Amino acid sequence: MAEDLVLDTAIRDWVLIPLTVVMILIGILRYFVSKLMQSQPTPDAKVVKEGQVVVRARNLRAGANFIPAKSFRARRAYFSNEENGLLHVPKGQGQNPQAQMFSDPNMAMDMMKKNLSMIIPQTLTFAWVNFFFSGFVAAKIPFPLTQRFRSMLQNGIDLSTVDVSYVSSRSWYFLNLFGLRGLFSLILGEENAMDDTQRMMQMGGFGFDPTKSDCYCVQRIALVY
Amino acid sequence: MAGHGESEKKSSDAVNDLQTFRAENLQSNMKVIYYSRTFLSIIGGVIAGILGFTGLTGFVFYFLMMAITSVALIAKAKFSIHTYFDSWNRVLLDGFLGGLMSFVLFWTFAYDIVHIF
């Protein structure tokens, strides 16, 4: 850092702070909008029942060593009996969630709404930042970085002589986008924080077969004793 | 769950170290850890920015902050981690990298406002 750039204080007052404040406000707005658009899922009696059975089986497994062996065996038989045990679902009968999703338009609609409520504000903010604040050196990160980070941090400035630690306004937007997640989880509660991970789990859960999980449960119960 | 088969043989003394966690309580404890880490990384970022740390000093400050958080959490759990969490890693490492991004952002923000302009 041979020569330091002198940044105008007007940049701080009219670029840096407004950008951050707007990002925070948009995040809050998005939270409430997505909350409004969320339709309450009406629970299906069969699905709820299955879930409760699995929970009960899990509790039994957890508390297995606290009850007499005889009563445990009785309960195990109740759950995992080959003919009419609660956990014994005939193969291929359980409904695949993926097929369920296609048959149930509400579920697909919900997913789309969620994704849209993520994408639309982001696109709009990005366009807004691009339109008003393109080409500013808005900030300077307090630690040195290598040349590799130039394209990441100085997005929108085509000067190769500027020190890498100076951040353009567009990249400041990206920094905000990632860094404010923690703040949102603090001020908006857990729902917002869990949103992303939950969606990930949903994505990973595609093709997850309830019959398999129940069989899995049977096996695990059999494992205990 | 594999441990259950073994513990059955010595079930008399194994009752104490059996896994008897309630998933909900465990999750709520994890949430507390996550919140306190996020909160402290934001506060720590602002402090580091105002004090004008640059380069490695700031990251050392972050590690220090997280270490203090861990100690505070352990103290809050009355030094018996296994009553509240299933392993030490939960207290020491969980949410460590998640807070780093917030820390860097607020560090940069405060540093710029105070020192650059």
TrEMBL record, chain A:
<keyword id="KW-0812">Transmembrane</keyword>
<keyword id="KW-1133">Transmembrane helix</keyword>
<feature type="transmembrane region" description="Helical">
    <location>
        <begin position="119"/>
        <end position="143"/>
    </location>
</feature>
<feature type="transmembrane region" description="Helical">
    <location>
        <begin position="14"/>
        <end position="33"/>
    </location>
</feature>
<dbReference type="InterPro" id="IPR008568">
    <property type="entry name" value="EMC3"/>
</dbReference>
<dbReference type="GO" id="GO:0034975">
    <property type="term" value="P:protein folding in endoplasmic reticulum"/>
</dbReference>
<comment type="similarity">
    <text>Belongs to the EMC3 family.</text>
</comment>
<dbReference type="GO" id="GO:0072546">
    <property type="term" value="C:EMC complex"/>
</dbReference>
<keyword id="KW-0472">Membrane</keyword>
<dbReference type="InterPro" id="IPR002809">
    <property type="entry name" value="EMC3/TMCO1"/>
</dbReference>
<dbReference type="Pfam" id="PF01956">
    <property type="entry name" value="EMC3_TMCO1"/>
</dbReference>
<protein>
    <recommendedName>
        <fullName>ER membrane protein complex subunit 3</fullName>
    </recommendedName>
</protein>
Automatic annotation (TrEMBL), chain B:
<dbReference type="InterPro" id="IPR008504">
    <property type="entry name" value="Emc6"/>
</dbReference>
<comment type="similarity">
    <text>Belongs to the EMC6 family.</text>
</comment>
<dbReference type="GO" id="GO:0000045">
    <property type="term" value="P:autophagosome assembly"/>
</dbReference>
<keyword id="KW-1133">Transmembrane helix</keyword>
<dbReference type="GO" id="GO:0034975">
    <property type="term" value="P:protein folding in endoplasmic reticulum"/>
</dbReference>
<feature type="transmembrane region" description="Helical">
    <location>
        <begin position="32"/>
        <end position="53"/>
    </location>
</feature>
<keyword id="KW-0472">Membrane</keyword>
<feature type="transmembrane region" description="Helical">
    <location>
        <begin position="59"/>
        <end position="79"/>
    </location>
</feature>
<dbReference type="GO" id="GO:0072546">
    <property type="term" value="C:EMC complex"/>
</dbReference>
<keyword id="KW-0256">Endoplasmic reticulum</keyword>
<dbReference type="InterPro" id="IPR029008">
    <property type="entry name" value="EMC6-like"/>
</dbReference>
<keyword id="KW-0812">Transmembrane</keyword>
<protein>
    <recommendedName>
        <fullName>ER membrane protein complex subunit 6</fullName>
    </recommendedName>
</protein>
<feature type="transmembrane region" description="Helical">
    <location>
        <begin position="91"/>
        <end position="111"/>
    </location>
</feature>
<dbReference type="Pfam" id="PF07019">
    <property type="entry name" value="EMC6"/>
</dbReference>
